Amino acid sequence: MAAEMESEWTGGSAYVSGAQRFLARSLFIFFSKPLLFLLPALVVTSIGGYLATTTPDEYQSIGVLSVSSETFLDVLTGSRSNTLSYESPAVTTARQFNELIQTDGFATSVIDGAGLGDERAAGLFTVADFRQNTYASASGESLVDIIAIADDPERARLLAVSSISAFKNYIISSEVLGTDVAENFYDEQLTSYKADVDLARQNLQDFLAANPEPINPGDARDIGEQLEITRLNDLLTQAQVRFDSAFDNREAARLATLQSSADINQRFRTLDEPVAPDVPQSGLKTLATTMILYAILGLLLSIGAVALATVLDRSIHSANDLERLGAGVRAVVPRSAGMSVDAPRHVSAGSVKTKAPEKAKASEKSKVPATAGSKNVR
Questions:
Q1: 64 and 149: one domain?
Q2: What domain range is 154 assigned to?
């Protein structure tokens, strides 16, 4: 039947296209052993079904951030200079978050912030697990989804909350890094300058205590005492001015830090807090998707096996195959009575043999004319 189907497909013509010839041979080979070629598809589909049914449930918690490129506080204070960008604020923020989770420091801070530090130390929850199941996705021009996936709904919520908090802290620390350094620097200087002021004041007080004013109001201090008092007063004034200048600079740095923190809290606002999901993410849709993907993969493997078998096949299924094999002389031998074919569905070169039956020989002898010496008996 497969050979007849191939003959019908090619129309019995010796001049058919290569694609038609290849397809006809592929169909012939496939229908000769269909179960064998369908085996890869069945095996791979079964594997997909097993994986889909044994995969544990996963819960997804999502927190939504609203991102803006400019705030009212920034307009009033001019604390941050806006740079020209072709990306929307949401795309920039999502990309920045996804880059941050690739760093061990940020990933560790999120895991520890979610209360999973002990599991991380014991190797039960690794940084690789966090990176695989936590990411950010832009949703429009100004909305960013922070997504965390875990096998427990509460764990998914904690990871999402910790991710948002750690990301905000990173933005704040990166933008106020200079002001923090300045604030710490002036804090150290104020301690030293305060000691200088106290020392200068104490020296002046000690000198005045050792050299009191004259009892008689009409008497004046000695010129040497006046000069020393003036010198000590100048030292106290210089120390106080230095202290006041450092204090003002420290206050300016502290104010810049507060402004940056407030500006960042306005730029990154949490619209939807992450919640513990009630139903798992996996379900019938995920099961069907997995089964379909594995079924397609198995079908591709079966098609590849048929194509490979067709390419490697060197059998003669029709007269068209003789041209492919480069046969110089061809002849069509019609099927007649007394001819038997060793392989009805798979005819190879030299497989056709003829046998002269006894009836054929007898018929030939009956056709021999009578000799001259024969007698006609009535």
A1: yes
A2: 59-175+270-284
Assigned domain for 362 exists = no
171 plus 64 within the same structural domain: yes
The overall average pLDDT reported for the chain is 77
The Cα 189–Cα 195 span in angstroms is 10
Q: How far is CA 24 from CA 32, 104, 196, 319, in A?
A: 12, 58, 101, 13
* 322-348 tens-digit pLDDT: 666 666 655 666 666 666 655 444 444
73/221 same-domain check: no
Q: For the chain, how many structural domains are there in total?
A: 3
CA distance readout (Å), 365 to 160, 338, 355, 373 = 101, 17, 17, 18
Find all residues with CB under 8 Å of 247, minimum gap 6, and list them. Answer: 186, 190
- Looking at the structure, do residues 12 and 41 belong to the same domain, yes or no? yes
**pLDDT tens digits for range 241-299:** 999 999 998 888 888 777 777 777 778 888 889 998 887 776 666 778 888 898 899 89
